[in-house]
Amino acid sequence: MKVLVTGGAGFIGSHLVDRLVEEGYEVIVVDNLSTGRRENVNPQAWLHVADLKDPDWAVGVSADVVFHFAANPEVRAEPRVHFEENVVATFNVLEWARVSGVKTVVFASSSTVYGDARVMPTPEDYPLEPVSVYGAAKAAGEVMCATYARLYGVRCLALRYANVVGPRLRHGALYDFLMKLRKKPEELEVLGDGTQRKSYLHVEEAVEATLRAWRKFEEVGEPYLALNVGNVDSLTVLDVAGLVAEVMGVAPVIKAGGASSDCRSSYLSVEKISKLAGWRPRLSSADSVRRAVRELLEELESRRGSSL
After folding, report:
1. Cβ–Cβ under 8 Å, residues 9 and 27
2. Are strands 26-31 and 104-110 parallel, antiparallel or unpaired?
3. Spatial CB neighbours of 233, under 8 Å, sequence gap ≥ 6
4. What dihedral angle (degrees, nearest 10) is formed by the CA atoms of 100, 104, 109, 113?
5. Mean pLDDT for each 10-residue chunk of the chain (308 residues)?
6. Quick one: 61 exposed, middle or buried, by C-beta within 10 A (0-12, 13-18, 19+)?
7. d(CA 129, CA 20)
8. pLDDT in tens, 33-55
9. Is residue 268 within 8 Å of 109, Cβ to Cβ?
10. Other C-beta atoms lying within 10 Å of the C-beta of residue 284
């Protein structure tokens, strides 16, 4: 089977590519390398450098299934960036899948589609009420996926990831804390009041959940399905700051700072994916954070002092 992974030079996408290659799939990576890194791409995969905002991005490319993981992950980016990188790009992938006869698209959605949910842990049938343009763009992507599935037979599995952490991570609170503490280990400012609560999942477990869900989805007859992918517990931002400092061996004064543009809380129910695909995380949120910090520090050390 030939598998195409958009955003395969990025964080989750590159780990997914590694696993697919390991399992013997023929893998094509499509990435414009704006945030992804060429060195993240498995040498046994074929890298096609192209911009998904271009309707002709797929010239010379074919595949049996598409994992659409390309996106701008920075919640605080300008609204037009989210529209172009996360909505237009998703439309172009779906339209290519329709024209090319691709039967399955796995779409990397996000827990941000729920906004500040009032039900915790949040199930998949909770209303989509995003509080950021990033979340709105992901919700729009899901609606397009569901519509293409209904109208054109392009079956789509939308996976709503919570906070995924691990090596090659380049955004989010954990990464920001690590970089800030490298520069100024005696002090750390966090956004908001620090009581925002979220779950954290290691990227290795996110990839395992992705593959199990995809394989089970191929067995069922539903044209469209949305599943949460997250952990079964949660941490506050202050908890994460403390864990990062602990692993780094520093004791900063932690101060609440500027406003946060993200959801205040994000804690997803994973009962649906557990029942469907038999997947549950092995590591707690705290252990996922500790492992990710250690791996990122090792990654930094391997670059001999260069920036992550």
Report:
1. no
2. unpaired
3. 199, 284, 285, 286
4. 100
5. 97 98 98 95 98 96 97 88 96 98 97 95 97 96 98 98 96 94 95 90 98 97 96 96 97 79 82 98 98 96 68
6. middle
7. 33
8. 999 999 999 999 999 999 999 99
9. no
10. 17
Sequence-distant (6+) residues with CB within 8 A of 299 are 167, 168, 308
Residue 308: predicted pLDDT: 65
Q: What does the DSSP assignment read for 8-26?
A: TTSHHHHHHHHHHHHTT-E
Distances (CA, A) of 168 to 76, 165, 171, 189, 307: 20, 9, 9, 23, 12
Q: Decide: 5 and 27 in contact? Cβ < 8 Å.
A: yes
| 207/125 Cα distance (integer angstroms) | 23
Q: Are 138 and 109 in contact (CB under 8 A)?
A: yes
Q: How far apart are the C-alpha atoms of 30 and 35, rounded to whole Å?
A: 13
**CA-CA distance, 118 to 90, in Å (whole number)?**
29
Provide the terminal-to-terminal Cα distance of the chain, rounded to the nearest Å.
Answer: 34
* Residues with catalytic roles: 134
- pLDDT per position as a tens digit, 219-268: 998 999 999 999 999 999 999 999 999 999 999 999 887 655 567 788 99
Topology of domain 165-198+232-266+284-302, CATH = UDP-galactose 4-epimerase; domain 1 (3.90.25)
Please give the DSSP secondary-structure letter assigned to residue 113: G
Q: Do 2-164+202-229 and 165-198+232-266+284-302 fold alike per CATH?
A: no
CATH domain 2-164+202-229 topology: Rossmann fold (3.40.50)
